[in-house]
Amino acid sequence: MEQLTNLVISDRELVAITALLTKLMNDTNATSTMLIDKSGQVVAVQGSESRSKATTLGALLAGVFSSSREVARLLNEKDFRSIFQQGVQENIFTSMVEEQWLLVIIFDKLTHIGLVKVLSKKAADELGRILERVRSDTSRTKSSVINLQFRSSVEDTIDLLFRD
To answer: In this structure, what CATH number is given to the domain that contains residue 130?
Structure first.
């Protein structure tokens, strides 16, 4: 299976993702919404989380999700598709999107978890369609971007070596 880290998300898809996260945040009255890949890399974040805090949170939540899938395996479950973490002031709901991304919703105790689950499912379906568009555009793989950058770098290095 193609890993997300080998794909490049265009501005058009990023705008769609950001709009979807904003709508989800507003509809659930969440404080933040995030989309991360399974390795913990932040794809997009909306709300009160700063980017540096979101990066750390993304890595930790990806680790928690990964360990929960191992727990599922030990219990002879196929997998766990979502995790709900309940705190005194804030809660986190994390759900898998198409085996590649994790949708994270951070919300306070006044928001009902049932609403979050229903709306996150709708959002995950739409994010799945966006991910499919990203996957289907093979011209945007990271390897092709790296090859262009590598070629340019090599040409620049050759120019520096042989200039008069």
So the answer is: 3.30.450.30
- The residue behind tokens 């880290």 is 5
Task: Summarize pLDDT for 20-65 with one digit per residue, the tens.
Answer: 999 999 999 999 999 999 888 899 999 987 677 888 999 999 999 9
Q: How many CA atoms lie within 13 A of 127 on its CB side?
A: 31
Question: How many distinct structural domains can be found in the chain?
Answer: 1
Within 13 Å, how many C-alpha atoms sit on residue 150's CB side?
6
CB atoms within 10 A of CB 117: 15
The answer to whether residue 155 is domain-embedded is no
> pTM (2 decimals)?
0.79
Q: Which residue range(s) make up the domain with 44?
A: 4-139
Quick one: which H or E segment has residue 85? strand 82-86
Q: How confident is the model over 87-104, as pLDDT tens digits?
A: 999 999 999 998 889 999
> Is 125 domain-assigned?
yes
